Amino acid sequence: MYFLSYSRQTFSQVLTLLLVLFFFSVTNAFAADDLATIQQMGNDNTAYVHQIRSDSRFGGREGINAVEITQIGDLNFTELHDSGINHVDIEQHGTQQEFSALVAGDGNDVLVNQEGNGNTGDMAIVGDNNAVSLSQSGNSDHSDIQVEGINNSVTVVQTGNSLNLGLELNGNNQHVTVTQQGI
Amino acid sequence: MKRHILTVAILSALYSSASFAGNGNDATVLQQGSSNAADVSQIGGNNKAAVVQAGSLTTANSSSQSGYSDGYWGNNYNNGSSSSSAFGDGSQNAATIAQTGSNNNANATQLGSNNTVNVQQTGNNNNTSSSSAGAANQYSAQTASNSSSWSSSWYGWYGYGSNSYQNTSTDVVATQSGNNNSVSLTQNGDGNNSNAGQNGNNNRVTVAQNGNNNNASSASAGALDHYSNQAQSSNSYYSNSYYYGWWYGYNNSYSSYNNQYSSTNGTTTQSGDNNDVSLTQNGDGNSSSANQNGNNNRVSVAQNGNGNTASSNQQGRQASSSFASSSNSSGGYWDWYSYANWYNSSYEQGSSQQTQAGNNNQTVLSQNGSFNGVSNQQVGNNNSTDMTQNGDRNAANAAQTGDNNVATISQTGSSNNANSLQQGGNNTTGIIQNGSDNNANVHAGYAYTSTTGSAGDSNNNDLTLAQNGFNNIADIGSVGDNNSASVTQNGNGNVASVQQQ
């Protein structure tokens, strides 16, 4: 019985890894000016990404950033500060994972996926025409999302029990979809 | 005191022999003509003997037995296809052999201390050999000049200290001008010095020193097809061995332009502690190899030119090596290919530093042990550096300025530090660390002396970092467009940081 449980758990982890790798093999096709990729396998790991790129309104170097962060394990932490036109992809698989993201600019595409229990997230999006997607699967997950700008869309899917979501949007033509589903 | 002064002048005599016993004797033998032979034997001190043979196919033999302070002992003179030998078993003797013409042979043997040998040969196909054996404070100085162009050779210095704890000193000076010359030096004992200078093409120098506190230097200057294989030194005894070798293979700047090729090979082998190797090569197509086995050894190589190769192999503690290359070409097109392969098997506190300026350079660095440091700086395009360190508490630093450069660092162990700094475009950095508590920093486009300011855009760079272990720190930063940063960490407690602007 233990063997079956262990095998099932191992299979689940391998499948998760394969799915993540497949996912990245697709998203790596971003035509970005800068690309940052971090993959961490283990516990208590920390990932910091800071990408600076401005658009024509603010001067500076124009272009597109892409960041892909994958953390598989427990008690991992991700902090992201991006400016410009960004493609953000954060994957966390494990328990008590945490991410903090500040994305400033227009036309950003932000995708965060957390699988496990006790995961938390804090996200702030500043700009227009941004698309934000957050998926949390597990119990006792918690997220706070702040969006400022126009024509932004936010999609949140939480699956589990004892979930918590804080969502604040400032601006016009915002589109929000929230789904919370118990197990 | 009984004193003999004898002058023998023989015209067209086949053989002259004189034997003198006593102190303060002077003997002079003059022979004119060919196929003459002279033997002078002196027993005692303060004696002088001179044999002058004006002609070819002559033979002169001088010997001093139980002598001391013999001034012009063995002052032989031959002219063409002749042989001259000097033998002494005393101290403070001076032997001088002068030969002009071709196909001469000179031989000097001295048994004793504080002796001097001076051989002058002017001509072709001459051969000189000498041997000296003395104990404390033995001193022997030898010079030779072969100024023509064919198969001159100089062979043999031997200063031997019967008791290695005594201070045995032998100084050897060899100078050759011409082509196809060779110098072979062997020194056994402590405190010996040798110096070989060659001016010509296709020359060779070989030096072997066994003992402590020895010093060897050589300089060669040759043009087209110059070849010099210089120096093998083994200091196999205890501490305070010292070796200094200097190579100078010069290829004038016009030969490179005319696609002429100059090659100089230098090889140095040292066993023992506190040894130094210093190599300088100017010209194209040169190569050098330095091997050291011991502690506190140092290797320094400088190469100026194109197509040069340098390698160093050090095994021991607190060894250090440095390599510097630059191009003396000015303006226009120039291309440089250098390959440096440094292997440092230091157990602790070894350091290696390389500097290369130019294009198409390659550096390979390897260190085994702990507390080692390696640093490589390349300025130019299409350069590559490859660093490997196995052990704990090592540091590797790679700095590249230019385009299309590649830096690779591999570290296995704990508490290691790897740093890569690149300025330019289309550069690639790959760092892999296996172990715990390691730190890796990769930066492109940052100011040279810090990781904060920008040195200008660095575009199209590919920066990759992989760490396997616990509590590792990875940091990647780039300034410019189309840069890629990738961090992969397997283990717990790791920190990855990426900054792109």
Strand order of the largest sheet of chain A: 1-3-5-7-9-11-13
What percentage of the residues of chain A does DSSP assign to strands (E)?
A: over 45%
Instruction: Count interface residues per chain for the largest interface.
Output: A-B, 26 and 24 residues
Number of strands of chain A: 13
- The dominant shape of chain B is elongated
What's the β-strand tally of chain B?
39
Provide a count of the helices of chain B: 1
Determine the fraction of residues in helical runs of chain A and give it as a percent range. Answer: 10-25%
Largest sheet of chain B: 11 strands, parallel
Structural class of chain B: mainly beta
Query: Which oligomeric state applies?
Result: heterodimer
Low-confidence blocks of residues of chain B:
1-13, 69-75, 135-141, 147-151, 156-168, 223-263, 328-338, 449-453
Strand order of the largest sheet of chain B: 19-20-22-24-26-28-30-32-34-36-38
What integer value in Å does the Rg of chain B equal? 30 Å
What's the average pLDDT of chain A? Answer: 83
- Unreliable residue runs of chain A: 1-30
Distance between the termini of chain A: 24 Å
Question: Which features does this protein show?
Answer:
heterodimer; A: 183 residues; mainly beta; six-stranded parallel sheet; 14% helix; flat; B: 501 residues; eleven-stranded parallel sheet; ten-stranded parallel sheet; elongated
Please tell me about this protein's structure.
- Chain A has 183 residues and is mainly beta.
- Chain A has one domain.
- Chain A is 14% helix and 52% strand.
- Chain A has one helix at residues 2-27; strands at 34-41, 46-51, 64-72, 77-83, 85-93, 98-104, 109-115, 120-126, 131-137, 142-148, 153-159, 164-170, 175-181.
- The longest helix of chain B is centred in the middle third of the chain and has 5 residues, at 253-257.
- The radius of gyration of chain B is 30 Å and the shape is elongated.
- Mean pLDDT of chain B is 69; it is low at 1-13, 69-75, 135-141, 147-151, 156-168, 223-263, 328-338 and 449-453.
- Helix content of chain B is 1%, strand content 52%.
- The N and C termini of chain B lie far apart (97 Å).
- The A-B interface holds A 33-53, 61, 63, 65, 67, 73 and B 470, 476, 478, 481-501.
- Strand 2 (46-51) of chain A pairs parallel with strand 39 (495-500) of chain B.
